[in-house]
Predict the 3D structure of the following.
Amino acid sequence: MAKILADKRIETKHGRSRPVAKRHMPWGTWALTLNAIFVYTFLYVPIIVLVLFSFNAAKVGAQWQGFTLQWYNELFADARLGDALWTSLKIAGLSTIIATTIGTLAALALEKRGWRGRKAFDTGLYLPVIIPDVVMAVSLLGFFTLAFRQFQALLGLNLAMGLWTVIISHVAFNISFVTVVVGTSLANFDRRLEEAAADLGATPWQTFWKIKFPLIGPGVLGGALLSFTLSLDDFVVTFFTRGPGVNTLTTEVYGRIKKSISPEINAISSLMLLGSTILVLTSLWMQRRRQA
Amino acid sequence: MNTPTWAVELDHVTKEFRGSTAVRDVSLKIADGEFFSLLGPSGCGKTTLLRMIAGFENPSSGDIYIEGELMGETPANQRDVNTVFQSYALFPHMSVAENVAFGLHMKKINKADVATRVKQALDMVQLHAFGERRPKQLSGGQQQRVALARALINEPEVLLLDEPLAALDLKLRKEMQLELKSIQQRLGITFIFVTHDQEEALTMSDRIAVMELGKVLQVGQPTEIYERPKTRFVADFIGECNFIDGTVMAVENGAVTLETTGGVRVVGTGMFPVAAGDHAVLAVRPEKVRLVEGQQPQGTNVFAAIVERVAYIGSDTRIIVRLPDGSPFDVWEANTVSTLDPNQYYTAGDPVFVTWATQNSLILER
């Protein structure tokens, strides 16, 4: 290693090169490098194995028996899985629209200064980001049960868990994420632009739609994509708050795992991984674009 | 309606922000077509005053009239004024042409007229070739011109400028000063110009209001502000000035005699009512002082002094001398003769006499 470093030359500003001083890698750097290798191994090896085995011809066992697209073909022919996907998309789509609207409005309210309780509202919004999913799920379940009982007692309405309870629950945890992302976008927004617009005769409504919204738009879209991804990927909250017959991709996968880990499961998981990755990357790209 | 109508009239305007007073009881009348500057150090309230005229802030008390009309809490978008912001505040997601057209679009002017007027406005600031660019692709000076075009295209009665040249380098700033002034004269629009740069204010303004700690200390033409400052702060803030503290001994035909603690008598033109025994200060500008070598000159306002430091700056030589009481005193001599002879310039340690004419020095409140 030391030899390689000694021989390596770096380009200087003027195009000439000079030798890099000979030095040893300090032990701290070694330790950190080793650590990084461990982290990446634990993070990515299981995922790589999963993706690889989704193309494995073997029906059972961990033996590689050749490449196949059979499991993917079976997936696309599986009507039950198609239904689950459709349910997932419905939940993700609706909860994203609602959460993005409410979350953006919350971020706009938080940006305005000088109202009582602003700080508490701000802190409160972060709670769903940090509490464990299972706590969120159990509390939502408890909330629905209590609410249903009240509706029954006071109005004589018989309500039951269903798709709509899942959507409400997803909205509940997505609002926070949208608010955080849109809030970052607003923090980068130059407020003098609003004054400039007003100065040029724009009403507050025109100022919002012509100046503010186009400039924070990438942030709103980024928040929406993040919310959509979180909703698609959620298992715990969905599992606790769904009514009978409501089956999303994640609950369907869980149902099948209970029997055995089949190659189809690997294939579904690989596709979900691909979908989520694309959504998250798009979301990050959207948020970064406004800085360009 | 007030007659005659002022472009902007401020009537006892005060602005308080959570306990601190940014603007204190300011009354001003700014005429139509005037180039009026608000000059003062940062934090003196000049920008707050401008923001109240624009409608971004409302006065805590007092009234603002624009073209004779009481503004009250009229929002910024309904006032016939436009602002050029210090940071330019151009809309980053719009092209230069779209930025300039924004005000006309808000007024629902038809597209053909907008196009013609945008072209005219960009021509005026010499940016006709840049209409399709984004603000970020322009230099600071060009962005400044866009901001100017975007404001002027609306043909406001009053244009407010908040330190618009502060971010430009010196040479470009000088160019823009002349350009702004010529645009203002051509269009005949009232300009209210906020700056902390006294030279800029003197160069461009018809009248200047000097502000400190939220108050207007003096309003006048550049010559009045420079030659007849009413307070020590104004004399000190605009240009350079020497001050000599003393006690009033006599007042005669407007000439006031002070005696310094060192027992020397100086005479200056009285600028405020004084009586014998009052404390006052004599102010004299360094370029109005003469240095004499050899024989002590006759008359009043003569001090023996020792040259302490000499700075040759090309057009002038700036000499700091020390008076008998130990206080420093600035003298500027114009270099009217071209020479390399070192004997023609002062050197540290030279004994000299400092002198100035009575009419060149003012007696101000301490």
Summary: The longest helix of chain B spans residues 170-187. Chain B touches chain A at residues 54-56, 75-78, 81-83, 85, 87, 89-93, 102-103, 106-107, 150-151, 154 (CB under 8 Å). DSSP finds eight helices and 20 strands in chain B. The first strand of chain B starts at residue 8 and ends at 17.
